[in-house]
Amino acid sequence: MLIYGFQNVLSWVQLALGVYAAVMLVDAAVRREDAYRAASKQSKGLWLIFLVIATALLFLLPLMSFLPIIGVIAVIVYTVDVRPALRQVTGGGRGPRRGGSSSDGPYGPYNGGR
Q1: pTM
Q2: CA dist list (Å): 22 to 25, 52, 84, 85, 89
Q3: Neighbours of 89 (CB within 10 A)
Q4: What is the pLDDT of residue 8?
Q5: Which of 49, 80, 89, 103 is deepest in the core (most CB within 10 A)?
């Protein structure tokens, strides 16, 4: 009984990881090619190959085998290393607002208590 429950949990985890890998694949596909070069990362095509293989492995093979774990590692590397570098190069994501003045705070302009 406990084994079936563990397998059920693992199947949900594997499905969630597969969907996340697919989302990261789409994210990598919509990024510009020159952003990869500007961020000094591997080429866009290479990352697309890595993420396609990782997504396929996560959907086709059981999670407790060796190859899907390598796929999870590739998705993690893209998520924590490549994606933030691409966002920084392209100006997307969290960061300073564009068009504001140097006296703007998080809730609007700061007028010095006037």
Answers
A1: 0.73
A2: 5, 8, 18, 20, 23
A3: 18
A4: 86
A5: 89
